[in-house]
Amino acid sequence: MKSQDSIDQYQRFENTIAEFRRQPTEYPRRVHNRLTRQMHNALPAFLFWLATALLLNLLAGTWFTEREDKADAAAVLALCALALTIAARSYTVNHLLYHSLGRLGRLHGVHYVSERIGFLHRFMALSTLLWLGVHAAERHYAPPYGDEALLLGLLLALVVIIASASTPFRRRHHNHFENIHRYVGYLAVILLIAYLLVDSTQSAGSPAALIDRPQPYLVAAIVMMLIAPWIGVREAHPALVHVGPHVIGMRLPGAPSFGTYTRCTLANRHFHPFGDSMIDFDDTANRVLYITPAGDRTTEVVNAARAGDFMLAECTTRADRFKGFMYHLGVYDDVLIVVTGGGIAPVIPCLVLNTDKRINVLWLGRNQAEEFTEELLGKLLDKIAGRDINIHMLNTNDPDLRAIGDRHYTALILQACAHYRPQAVFVMSNQKFTIDVMHALRENGIKAYGATFDS
């Protein structure tokens, strides 16, 4: 049963919104450059993972200085660094950080750092290149230089992968970034295996002697981590169940859950993550993935569906569902969720499946009813009618809101925080707005969660 306090709070904030429409105020930013705001948002996690990587490399360097065969030791350390690079993005580590550690309590600092483990992924990739370079400098060269050619190819492949993962390239050429990470990554693994087999065999004297060396086992671990995501990949035949002006929805087998996302293939067999959502709020056997045009292959899929061609009628999905920042909502009792546009999709399970939390939603978007249909929104509101859940919707296409900018909406969000006093705020939006809102919330000492956009 919805409490009277929740009903009163809703009405009072609707009055605040009405006043905002008449006389909007701007948030006075203290940092005017968005890149600087983004760096401020990530700085503590950046420093934590940098310190972790430096400590690991310091320990590695200490061990390295004690070895007689420097080239062999550097090769082992390069493999260890590569293994950590891959592990940082593995499902097992994701599950550990989000489910095991994340559910210990309202550990916002732990959550904040764990969500940005991508920094460790990058630092260990650089460490791999560093130790491989040390190995190249320490090893002995002799004709016919076959293994040296493999080593040079491996070094070049790693340089290309790391360079393509830089933020400017990844943001401007995301499809190329994915292709390079996949195909050049596969090439690098093949070169690595070939090189280590040749080099280690030459050093050990015979293939049988490799059993006593760590390199084969490290290579096997790396290969297993690369293969693991493909175990359980299954064919799927999703049904197109929703087509809006900028949003489409497809239904897949599997119980809906909140804070998780499913990876499915788009064009060119690339896996893309989509937040798990719902369309039939009483259906516990199927989930729905909503897709919005995000500038990569999703744009092609959405445009084709709107033209009558559903490109994903046959695709594949991965069995493991990774957890995202919305998963941390489970440890809080009173939250504010800020949503823009199609970002409401992964929020829907949070509203429908959580029956004992107080949730307030501020949904900013263009023509929400047109994107998700009056019928769907009506069913959602009916489903949550008896719970302590309030949804405030602002149609940014309304005449009195068309001239409103991000700084005005940021000020309104801070008013919502002052009004509802949530334990934490969750921001589900595009990159620019997420950066701006997260920075404003942190400036005001409010616990905030949002996407890191480091894929």
TrEMBL record:
Coiled coil (residue ranges): none
InterPro entries, A to Z: Adenylate-forming_domain, FNR_nucleotide-bd
Residues annotated as transmembrane: 42-64, 76-98, 119-137, 149-168, 180-197, 217-233
Keyword Transferase: no
Superkingdom of origin organism: Bacteria
Keyword annotations: Membrane, Transmembrane, Transmembrane helix
Protein's name in the database: Uncharacterized protein
